[in-house]
Amino acid sequence: MLRQTRKKPTSWRRNSISATRYRVNGWLDLPVHSILVAGSKNRDERVNISRADKVLLGGGTAVLGGSALFGVPLGFAVPAAALAAVMLDGIFRPTSSVFYPTIAHGPRDQPQVALTFDDGPDPAVTPAVLDILGAADARGTFFTIGRYLQRHAAIGQRIVDERHELGNHSWQHSRLQNFYGPRAHTEDLARNTSIIQKLTGSDREPLYRPPVGLKSPALARVATRRELTIVAWSLHSRDTVIRDPRAVAARVLRKIQPGDIVLLHDGHDIEGARRHVVLDALPLILDGLRQQGLQATTVSELLRR
């Protein structure tokens, strides 16, 4: 179960620090910090300091300190190169927690895996995926694009009614989304979150998967403020590039292990484009999981969230 524990300072002082740690079954321990504005005791007035901001502040300090102590170019180049490497990892590696705590897999001690489906719902694909999951008594998590979910809300409602999970995969899924500022990220997130909450009847913040798995300091600030749970994956099916469904299934079944979060696609971010490979690959994957004694469940169930 995802548990939240809060350590309160003995007294609230100006610029005092409080810490919140998130634990998932003891194998995940993620700190998030905030600073009180002008000594306010009101939690709503805290200015959240994201992990990305701490990386930038620490890296900038190292660059300036190195330059002052050892001069240019050596004192500047070495810490600057290290900071650049850390930043690139935070941006481009989907499972990186440099900017924000990111979940890539669940506990490895239970015979469960999570199948996740991105970029839908697609009326030509998603209903058939639901039929396949239902026939196998399997559950999945659908990271939906908001503009599609709004258009095909009935499919979203079916996902909920059949005890699958709706996740937020942004509203627009823009190829330029990682260049958004905090305000644009907030607006994009909120639009899809609102639809998901209406369909589920819950005000809980849904799981979030950034488009293409990319993150930025701006997204990290928004995620920290909204206390998002960001989910990546530990096993990519490559169904976006492999056209043979048997090869997709073979890849997944060859690499799968308990606790894995598997990335599949039931939609496409480009209007009018479709991905059908999953329809023939999914029955093979589910049959292979059954033979290996693995149960397909939702991400939240995998995390006992």
Q: What is the N-to-C succession of helices and strands?
A: EEEEHHEEHEHHEHHEEHEHEH
Number of strands: 12
Question: What's the main sheet like?
Answer: 6 strands, parallel
- Give the overall shape: globular
Mean pLDDT: 87
What are the segments in which pLDDT stays under 50 over at least 5 consecutive residues?
1-41
Q: Specify the number of helices.
A: 10
How would you sum up this structure, described in words?
It is a single chain. With 305 residues, the chain is an alpha/beta fold. The protein has ten helices and twelve strands. Strands 6, 7, 8, 10, 11 and 12 form a six-stranded parallel beta sheet that branches. A four-stranded antiparallel beta sheet has the order 1-2-3-4. A two-stranded parallel sheet has the order 5-9. The longest helix is centred in the N-terminal third of the chain and has 20 residues. The chain is globular. It starts with a strand and ends with a helix. The N terminus is likely disordered.
Describe this structure in a few short sentences.
The chain has 305 residues and is α/β, with parallel strands linked by helices. The protein has helices at residues 51-70, 74-92, 126-135, 146-151, 153-161, 182-200, 217-226, 245-255, 277-291, 299-302; strands at residues 2-7, 17-24, 29-35, 47-49, 102-103, 112-120, 140-144, 165-168, 230-231, 235-236, 261-265, 295-297. Strand 10, helix 8 (245-255) and strand 11 form a beta-alpha-beta unit.
